[in-house]
Amino acid sequence: MDNEMFSMVLDTLKKIEREKLSLETRLEMDSKGDFPEELIRFMLGPDIGLHLVFIPSQYGGLGASVLQVAKISEEMAKIDMAIATSFLAICLGMDPIRVGGTEEQKEKYIRRIADEGLIVGYGVTEPEAGSNVQALKTKAERVLDEKDQIKGYRINGQKQFITNGGVADLHTILADTPEGPSFFIIENGTEGLLPGKHEDKHGIRASNTAPITLEDVYVPAENLVGCVEGDGLKQANRVFGYTRLMVATFGLAAGMSSLEKVISYAKERIQFGKPLTQKQGYTHKLLVPNAVRLEAARAYIEEIATRIDSGEEDLQVEGSIAKYFATEVGDAMANDGIQALGGYGYIREYEVEKIKRDAKIATIFEG
Prior knowledge:
51% of the residues lie in helices and 16% in strands. It is of the alpha+beta class. It folds into three domains: 3-119, Butyryl-Coa Dehydrogenase, subunit A, domain 1, CATH 1.10.540.10; 121-232, Butyryl-CoA Dehydrogenase, subunit A, domain 2; 234-362, Butyryl-CoA Dehydrogenase, subunit A, domain 3. α5 (81-100) packs antiparallel against α7.
């Protein structure tokens, strides 16, 4: 994606914030805890097509670089982390196909995601299998034809905490085959695919999070990602460096959003005859240390993004380091943001308490 298009995407985000995601709207979405499907569909629609930044150009996307996607993800999360989470999940759900699918699967499904603006879910986590993916219990049993050739799979199991789980048009589901964990592409409406109730969450409340039950779900063999059993964990590991880097930008976004609100407040808040920005006991405890750590997180995120863009592989550890550091730093600033505003920080209309609630999930999800 060239710089002109990149600037246009950032301008589009600012326009969406002005016209669709005002502070009042964000607070209302948070209070209700309902998924804003109409807004998400609008952002996926032909007039906006924001999901295209995540999609390679050969399949109808904009082909943004990792560094560009990181910046876009940060800006989106600064507006509202629930909305950003919904979009990141589309990218995450597509990734097994992108890195492990056959060319026919990529052409069919990635292009459909691009052209139709599909909402995608990534079905890996289970009640007893979080970061320990190898503990998954969802099973995919082979279904044979009259010549004893594999014609499909019958999948049974339970998925938990699936972003977009209750609203996705398309799911990539990890299940254990005779040869090991494997991803399957399953469309919404498939018999036996049963999304559960939207979870009532502490933060990112407008993001749809739901369990999924699979009861004798039949999936044709051609929907096994890569058409080879047992490659699921390898496919998941290949994108951890990238996806965890994007979650790192969420932590950075939360911290920066909180910091900017605190600075604005501190310039206007007069105590003992001076604004709080002139009180070193305030700035050197609540602002300066956080600002330094946030900029360090940004520098590391940009370094790893640049290395991925250069073609370097096996950066799962580095992506995980970025996620750990940036999300912890962002969460700390979000916490200090409440303290910095005093009693006002505890009031919903000042938003810093929402930022803190949203920030916490970045330290938890995506491992």
